[in-house]
Specification:
By secondary structure, this protein is α+β, with helices and mostly antiparallel strands. The chain contains nine helices and 16 strands. A hairpin with a 4-residue loop joins β7 and β8.
Length: 334
């Protein structure tokens, strides 16, 4: 058994003993459609893929994903834990969470499910896997492809302008066509330089102002370009569910007592809301306010604790007196 299968079994051992239950579930649900082996486990964002049903990992009824490769039901929490466990053991070639399915998961889905720390680890693992100039991973599913020799690589580079198709690779797992030289999806009728130039043009276009706002803004988490059609600057990325400010591109943060993105003097505040032309002054003032609040917090906390202690002391001292007076009045009335 390979390491991938071992880790999947460890992650959800109940599935090993629940194969008959799973098959019975598929028969009852009437879902017998499977994609062919060449199809790929892509990210499931469509409403049809998210339904209220029993997760086949934790057996809890909640919103689940139906895997397109095998129709397997899994909730967001279990998927996130599974992807995190795979990255923690150093795996970048991650199979479907279903132990009966061996289709590979696309990088976009994995990255969008990881927290910032594990995302950095995952990106570092991918970078380390592509250090050898003769071996590169598929940009989608991370399947490794190796050219036969350094002469083959030189031939690719020499023919890039005359016959760019020499550098085209088709992944044996997910069938993605990609360019070995620039390590990007295949750019038909474009050289690697022209493709990279087009990416630069897209970034330049996104930074241009149109009717007083940017043409597009990148999500600070998953780096997807998002264009605002109207409304306020509070944006919500549909891909990774991150909230961010369309105007400055920063992720929205809030900390009680220290303010949020819409507070002028908060360190989390938008740079366009306070002294946008003087970044040094803005940072200095906001930093001073933040430092003063840090200093005041223990003082205010001590005052609150002192006031509470004083109140308790007065109450304890007054209680016997009040009780004595009450009892005296009761007996005097009789």
């Amino acid at each position: 058994m390979c390491d991938q299968e071992k880790s999947k079994n460890i992650f959800h051992p109940l599935l090993v003993d629940k194969e008959s239950d799973y098959n019975e579930y598929r028969m009852m649900s009437g879902s017998d459609s499977r994609l062919s082996d060449k199809d790929h486990c892509d990210e499931l964002d469509s409403p049809e893929a998210r339904i209220f049903e029993e997760c086949k990992i934790c057996y809890q009824y909640q919103r689940i994903h139906r895997r397109t490769c095998c129709d397997f039901s899994a909730c967001d929490s279990c998927l996130r834990q599974y992807y995190a466990s795979q990255v923690e053991i150093g795996s970048i070639k991650i199979e479907c969470i279903n132990i009966q399915c061996h289709q590979l998961i696309g990088r976009n889905e994995v990255i969008s499910s990881l927290d910032s720390k594990l995302r950095d680890v995952y990106n570092r693992l991918i970078k380390e896997s592509n250090c050898n100039q003769l071996a590169k991973t598929c940009p989608n599913c991370s399947t490794m492809f190796t050219v036969t020799s350094i002469n083959t690589l030189r031939s690719m580079k020499k023919m890039i302008n005359k016959n760019p198709i020499e550098s085209r690779i088709q992944c044996v797992e997910c069938k993605l066509n990609w360019c070995f030289l620039c390590h990007a999806p295949w750019h038909q009728d474009l050289t690697c330089h022209q493709y990279r130039q087009g990416d630069k043009l897209l970034k330049a276009w996104a930074k241009q102002l149109n009717q007083g706002q940017l043409n597009a803004q990148r999500c600070p988490k998953c780096k997807t370009f998002i264009q605002k059609s109207g409304g306020c600057d509070h944006m919500h990325c549909n891909r990774c569910k991150t909230g961010f400010c369309y105007r400055c591109g920063e992720q929205l943060r809030h900390l009680k007592f220290f303010g949020d993105h819409y507070s002028k003097l908060s360190i989390f505040g938008c740079k366009y809301r306070f002294k946008k032309e003087s970044p040094f002054q803005r940072k200095a003032i906001r930093g001073a306010v933040f430092a003063s609040k840090l200093i005041l917090m223990p003082i205010i906390g001590s005052l609150v604790i002192g006031a509470g202690a004083m109140f308790v002391s007065v109450a304890l001292a007054f209680l016997p007196f009040y009780g004595g007076v009450t009892i005296y009045k009761k007996y005097a009335a009789n």
